[in-house]
């Protein structure tokens, strides 16, 4: 059992490829903030080695546009560090363009399609209240 919880929250009206894309990018934001989350390399019975994975389980939740804004606001109020993905990032092709797209928006105007949190279990549960497990 971990003291922290990782939750990825994606907007429920996205296309499947967008949900997967956002989830992948948000996962990198969680790992990038805490490299100690990376486990050891995997090895199969034949001795072939594979890249390591995150050691802690993650939960993927969905909510609508307003729900995502509420979760974002609650997380900000609690001072939580989070990874975000905004709709405008679907039209960019690299990290610098992604950061420029976010930088162009005031906090309240972010067109969020996903966010990721890793914090105290109970705090994450409170902040994400109302979001549902991804089907």
UniProtKB/TrEMBL annotation:
InterPro entries membership: DUF2000, Pep_tRNA_hydro_II_dom_sf
Q: Which SUPFAM superfamilies match?
A: Peptidyl-tRNA hydrolase II
State the name under which the record lists this protein: DUF2000 family protein
User: To which species is this protein native?
Assistant: Pontivivens ytuae
